């Protein structure tokens, strides 16, 4: 399963979600100009990344079976 290209894409998508979430939380924690300028944008990107990751997981189960 770990050699499946779709599985690797899912792992990359999950890594993207964690990265965007960490940057968003870090910016929120520090506050200031970065948070005021990019806070909402980072959370929107997190939601988009999560949706893509969930769709890829559903696609994986639909194609590969349970």
Automatic annotation (TrEMBL):
- Per the record, a Pfam family? HIG_1_N
Key word Transmembrane present: yes
Q: Where is the HIG1 domain?
A: 1-66
Q: Which UniProt keywords apply?
A: Membrane, Transmembrane, Transmembrane helix
* Protein origin, superkingdom: Bacteria
Please give the InterPro entries that the UniProt record associates with this protein.
Answer: Hypoxia_induced_domain (IPR007667)
TM helices/strands, residue ranges: 6-31, 43-63
* Protein known as: Twin transmembrane helix small protein
Native source species: Paracoccus aurantiacus
